[in-house]
Design the sequence.
């Protein structure tokens, strides 16, 4: 007797098998489309190393389980945040990603420059190692010009003087004019620069009051010898090489983008 497919479907056992196959197929398809988070031995080793770096000792089994669970929690939240595009138009995240990429680019470190290369860089950038004119002086502050002039008269006579209370520094050693202007004001710095002598200077007036200075030293502008700045030269040339590598990498990928600019260079 030939089999009738319609009759077979009406059989309870056959119907159960068909439903089971459909559920299995649906579950299989769902699992294939479901994002996977895999906790590998390599990941746990990395988490354990991070824990040891922070605490000074390796995690025990319970601690490793806890930090792994915490990583899993953060990974789920991280993926959900990406799915919701929470990283879009976030300047903090944008800057952090840029920093990570720059760090990866910087990992390709060139060989350390030779002494000859350092000296060549130094000669090419001499102005970077020039010290401006510097001043050393003892400062006495007074609220009125009369008090300042009287103190100067006594100082020139060899008498001991005391300034009035102030937050301004008494002793100032090897300060350049920019540093002096930041502390005492620009007018003070200009009058100090105009003075030609050392010793007790004429009273200087500033936005704060009146100042009597014993100028003990005036050092001319000079280029620091290579031997005294060799470490800074190394840092500068390394920074220059890093910036050049970043720019070269950027230029290598820039052509992959179509850039439309609405700004105008004026």
Sequence:
């Amino acid at each position: 007797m030939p089999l009738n497919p319609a009759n077979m479907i009406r059989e309870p056992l056959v119907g159960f098998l068909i439903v089971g196959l459909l559920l299995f197929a649906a579950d299989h398809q769902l699992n294939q489309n479901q994002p996977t988070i895999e906790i590998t031995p390599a990941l746990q080793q990395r988490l354990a190393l991070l824990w040891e770096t922070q605490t000074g000792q390796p995690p025990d089994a319970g601690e490793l389980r806890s930090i792994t669970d915490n990583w899993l929690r953060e990974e789920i939240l991280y993926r959900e945040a990406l799915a919701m595009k929470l990283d879009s138009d976030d300047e903090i995240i944008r800057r952090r990603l840029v920093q990570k990429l720059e760090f990866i680019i910087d990992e390709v470190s060139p060989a350390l420059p030779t002494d000859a290369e350092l000296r060549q860089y130094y000669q090419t950038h001499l102005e970077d190692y020039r010290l401006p004119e510097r001043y050393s002086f003892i400062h006495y502050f007074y609220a009125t010009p009369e008090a300042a002039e009287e103190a100067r008269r006594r100082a020139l006579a060899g008498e001991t003087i005391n300034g009035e209370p102030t937050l301004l520094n008494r002793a100032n050693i090897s300060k350049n004019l920019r540093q002096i202007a930041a502390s005492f004001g620009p007018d003070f710095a200009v009058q100090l620069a105009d003075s030609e002598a050392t010793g007790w200077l004429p009273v200087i007036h500033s936005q704060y009051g009146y100042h009597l200075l014993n100028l003990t030293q005036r050092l001319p502008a000079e280029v620091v010898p290579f031997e005294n700045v060799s470490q800074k030269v190394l840092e500068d040339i390394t920074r220059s090489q890093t910036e050049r590598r970043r720019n070269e990498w950027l230029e290598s990928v820039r052509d992959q983008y179509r850039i439309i600019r609405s700004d105008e260079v004026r």
User: Anything to note?
Assistant: DSSP finds ten helices and seven strands in the chain. The beta strands are 130-131, 134-142, 171-176, 199-200, 204-205, 210-219, 222-223. Residues 226-254 form the longest helix (29 residues).
